[in-house]
Amino acid sequence: MAEETIFSKIINREIPADIVYEDDVALAFKDINPQAPVHLLIIPKKPIATVNDIEDEDAAIVGHLYVVAGKLAVQHGFAKDGYRCVMNCNEHGGQTVYHIHLHLLAGKAMGWPPYTDTLKNA
């Protein structure tokens, strides 16, 4: 059995979250430490610790997270302007909760690549 995380507690309604979407496969809620004017987390209800733990049979679940992101972008009115979807993996990738989650960031222009200064110094 997977280790219980803050996300599993949100799924089980053991702790509160500002939930903006839910279906049988996924749940989306506002990030408590937003990095953009809109910062939502989209999580699968199936606990998958990291990107490294995604199996072939999880492909539909992971794809569904992106479908939900697109729906939320339309629903919240930023689909046309654009948005960023990010999934971190492990410590060096910035993952802090070991239950995969798609960050949906919007509401401001975001430069690309985010590490432009690093490339200039390479």
From TrEMBL:
Residue ranges of the motif Histidine triad motif: 99-103
MF-aspect GO terms: catalytic activity
Highest taxon in the source lineage: Bacteria
Annotated CDD domains: PKCI_related
Active-site residue numbers: 101
Record-linked Pfam families: HIT
PROSITE patterns documented for this protein: HIT_1, HIT_2
Domain HIT: 6-115
Protein name: Histidine triad (HIT) family protein
